[in-house]
Amino acid sequence: MGIYKRLSISQKQIVWAWGLLAIPIVFYVVVRFYPTANAILLSFQEWNLLGSRNWTGFDNYVKLFSDPTFWKVFGNTFLYLILGTPSSLLLAFVIAFHLDKLRFMHGTIRALYFLPFMTSAVAMAWVWRWFYQPVPIGVFNNTLATFGIPQIPFLNSTTFALPSILAPAIWAGLGFQVIIFMAGLRAIPQTYYEAARIDGISAWETLTEITIPLLKPTIVFLVVFSSIGFLRIFDQVFNMTTNDPGGPLNSTKPLVLMIYDTAFNSFDMGYAAAQTVVLFTVLLVVSLLQLRVMRDK
Amino acid sequence: MTTVSLNNLVKSYGDTQVLHGINLDIQSGEFVVLVGPSGCGKSTTLRMIAGLEEISAGDIRIGGDVVNDMEPKERNIAMVFQNYAIYPHMTVRKNIGFGLRTSKLSKDEKDARINEVSGILELTDLLDRKPNQLSGGQRQRVAIGRAMVRDPAAFLFDEPLSNLDAQLRTQMRLEIKKLHQRVGNTIIFVTHDQVEAMTMADRIVIMKDGHIQQVGTPFEVFYEPANIFVAQFIGAPSMNMLNGIVKGETIALDNGTSVQVPTTKLSENQQVAVGLRPDALLVQEGEGLFSGEVSVIEPLGTDTLAYVKVGEKEVIAKASGRTPPAVGDTVNLHAAPEAIHLFDAHTGEAIR
């Protein structure tokens, strides 16, 4: 203990900090960084999970980029992102903005919005799948029938299936986004609004000139967070289209589902790894782009 | 120019009344300071004038018109907040110009106004900075600039100096006073600091528990306080207050001594409070009003404050700064007859 005793207080603090950090660092290296590196390696190889791993160079990538299914799936993934992120954020903001002004039953309503976030995605997907069934089972089609509107083949149409699957995914994340938005709104000092009232600024200008600019850090966080969520969508799709995962005709298949299929149905681990690397790159690029675009100048 | 008048102004939150009928007439161009301890209703009064709080009863007139049901922007007032309320994401120029958003002036006229105001407030070099690059005093000036740029009928200040350090507060106090002398708008200023009230106001309104205690010039509230509360609130250190009973020509004080005062307005056996400002109670040679032992001294440079035990009670007196008494000394305390304030012990009202 002689060496330790001779250290200054700040040196001792550093020793303890590194000592405590060592555990998560080792953990992360073993369960995150090593498999990541291994997956990148695997994407240049061929492996069926049991046999030996053979080098194939860029074959997996060449195969991937010339595979029309991949481009369909790639498009789907971006569709989930492009439809999901703005609509969920807009919806969450509108709810949070009005809920913030509400005193009556405030806690109850907030809890109602948060409930789906705590619910199992699988259970939720099955309930929504049931909602989408044709007459006389599905709630939505029954309602449409009551008003004499033609049936919508929600999950059986290549047009409607993707938005139909997206809806419960948006709904599930809404509670979380509402809570974060409300925290952001609460952090804006009331006097900013009072000053604006005295200056006669309209409600719309107050929103666009004061509230939204001051909410920017919150918005950046939610955009990045929810984009990552939508790019990695899987549970809802898999559970709502179990008969033909990602169907009909691959119209709802996201990248994660394709990876799952390739790896655990075709046992083409090298090809799956190449897809994973592409997904990883997309996530990285999208997140960095968003952070760069929305960073303070 | 604009007068502001409050007529029987009442504010209630549910069953709790916090302002109990305020009456106040503010002249055009006057600098009025509302002062009182926290919870006295001064900020509520100001916010009602601004239109940020509903009026429960009574009315407010600005320039002769009842404004009770007008939106804040229709009242043609501007307000400066304690936390400045300047927008962190806008430059100084945009912050100042924000007050002109709704005005019908042309772009050039607006720019001219912004430049004029920033010139007066010495903000010209800072116009393109963001608030986080400014000092506390500069932020305060931006907030004042945003208020000035609209050329409002009246300025409302809600404790604008509370977030500044002592030195800056003294400086801004002077700047606001100079600004008032220069632009001459009506100013209603809320503070809990009696020094700010004394130094800046044309007239001071002292409030407590939702009632006005006294309205008067700094001279009046200091030398002719209306009641015990005003006497002790204004002036630092606080006025010495000794209870006593009128006995013939003298008042027998409960510290065992007695003072001789003109008793024409007093009745025999009336319970009174005798008030003496520490400034007017001097440690001097020779037979005085009281004598007692010094328990603590506080040197202030020019003067020394001496805490003197007179009978059972301690009073604060002023002694010389150069030759202060020592702790344990027995000193004589003198006061001029006109420096003695008399109050009714039951009602607290001044007896004059």
Automatic annotation (TrEMBL), chain A:
The keyword Transmembrane helix applies. Pfam families: BPD_transp_1. The chain crosses the membrane at residues 14-34, 78-99, 111-131, 165-188, 214-234, 271-291. InterPro entries: ABC_transporter_permease, MetI-like, MetI-like_sf. Residues 74-290 form the ABC transmembrane type-1 domain. The keyword Metal-binding does not apply. Belongs to the binding-protein-dependent transport system permease family. This is Multiple sugar transport system permease protein. It comes from Pseudovibrio ascidiaceicola. The lineage of its organism: Bacteria, Pseudomonadati, Pseudomonadota, Alphaproteobacteria, Hyphomicrobiales.
UniProtKB/TrEMBL annotation, chain B:
One of its GO terms (molecular function) is ATP binding. It comes from the Bacteria. Residues 4-234 form the ABC transporter domain. SMART domains: AAA. Keywords: ATP-binding, Nucleotide-binding, Transport. It holds the Pfam family TOBE_2. Belongs to the ABC transporter superfamily. This is Carbohydrate ABC transporter ATP-binding protein, CUT1 family (TC 3.A.1.1.-).
